[in-house]
């Protein structure tokens, strides 16, 4: 009986995996290019209307450009519609241009509408078309988070960041950052077109239903790695569509670091 040597079998398996990964990457990038171009054209009237209202309501630029960490830690400019007054409220030493608190007095009235609806993220279609981001992937990291990263956390930087991701539709703001990173790591390990489609379409009911928006601020700097086996088991048992984690889980570690306004950056 002729047997294929173990080394050759492993090479064949690795080659198949590489081909699948290569095909997936090209297909995903093609969908990002054509999808972002399609939505940019489709939403061009909305872009114009929102830009006019933002400009009329308060002085300042239409877009808010924030430096974020992309794939492999490369920095890029993330586009959003400006939702904050150009000048911070008197007494707010740190400034609140990056605040996420819905109670922040510097958020404009229309800015609150944009944030609640997620429309402030619409300009990230530009980032997708440019290749800085994808429709689906870990959210681009804010710069001040990098100081808390270990090699475990940096795995989320191995792929292009996304407008939406597994952490956004399975936990959002009601889980510690360590749990968000664990969900991102799970996504990186299980990337597929099928998972991308589930994440993309689940984003709509999560955003429209305002699910997971009112998270406790003391979760923001808890980067403690959780039990990844528990997270994987939940996702694989219940499926991505039906799974949503919450900080009320008894298994979740919670710290109580107080946030300054400057640190309340949008995820």
Helices and strands, with pairings:
Blueprint lengths: L5 H37 L1 H14 L5 E7 L5 E7 L27 H9 L6 H7 L3 E3 L4 E2 L8 H4 L7 E3 L1 H4 L7 H13 L3 H16 L19 H11 L29
Parallel strand pairs: 3-5
Antiparallel strand pairs: 1-2, 1-4
Helix pairs in contact: 1-4
Could you explain how this protein is built, in words?
- With 267 residues, the chain is mainly alpha-helical.
- It contains 9 helices and 5 strands, in the order ααββααββαβαααα.
- The longest helix has 37 residues, at 6-42.
- The model is unreliable at 91-102 and 252-267 (pLDDT under 50).
Using the alpha-carbon principal axes, give the shape: globular
Helix content: 40-55%
What are the low-pLDDT stretches, counting only 5+ consecutive residues below 50?
91-102, 252-267
The overall strand count is: 5
The tally of helices reads 9
- Percent of residues in β-strands: 5-15%
Distance between the termini: 58 Å
Compute the number of structural domains.
Answer: 1
Order of helices and strands: HHEEHHEEHEHHHH
User: What's the main sheet like?
Assistant: 3 strands, antiparallel
Compute the CA-based radius of gyration. 20 Å
Q: Which class of secondary structure composition applies to the elements? A: mainly alpha
Strands of the widest sheet, in order across it, are: 2-1-4
Arithmetic mean of pLDDT: 82
């Amino acid at each position: 009986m002729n047997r294929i040597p173990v080394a050759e079998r492993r090479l064949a398996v690795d080659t198949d995996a590489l081909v699948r990964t290569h095909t997936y990457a090209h297909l995903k990038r093609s969908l990002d290019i054509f999808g972002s171009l399609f939505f940019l054209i489709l939403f061009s009237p909305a872009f114009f209307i929102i830009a006019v209202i933002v400009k009329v309501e308060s002085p300042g630029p239409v877009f808010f450009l924030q430096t974020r960490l992309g794939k492999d830690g490369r920095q890029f400019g993330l586009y959003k519609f400006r939702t904050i007054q150009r000048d911070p409220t008197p007494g707010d030493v740190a400034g609140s241009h990056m605040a996420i608190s819905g109670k922040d007095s510097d958020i404009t009235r229309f800015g609150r509408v944009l944030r609640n609806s997620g429309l402030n993220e619409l300009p990230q279609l530009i980032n997708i078309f440019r290749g800085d981001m994808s429709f689906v992937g870990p959210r681009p990291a804010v710069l001040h988070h990098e100081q808390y990263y270990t090699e475990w956390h940096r795995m989320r930087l191995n792929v292009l960041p996304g407008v939406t991701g597994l952490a956004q539709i399975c936990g959002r703001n009601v889980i510690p950052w360590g749990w968000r990173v664990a969900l991102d790591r799970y996504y990186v390990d299980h990337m597929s077109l099928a998972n991308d489609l589930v994440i993309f379409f689940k984003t709509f009911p999560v955003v429209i239903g305002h699910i997971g928006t009112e998270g406790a601020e003391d979760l923001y700097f808890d980067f403690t790695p959780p039990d990844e086996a528990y997270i994987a088991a939940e996702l694989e048992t219940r499926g991505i569509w039906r799974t949503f984690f919450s900080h009320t889980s008894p298994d979740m570690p919670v710290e109580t670091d107080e946030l300054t306004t400057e640190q309340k950056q949008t995820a």
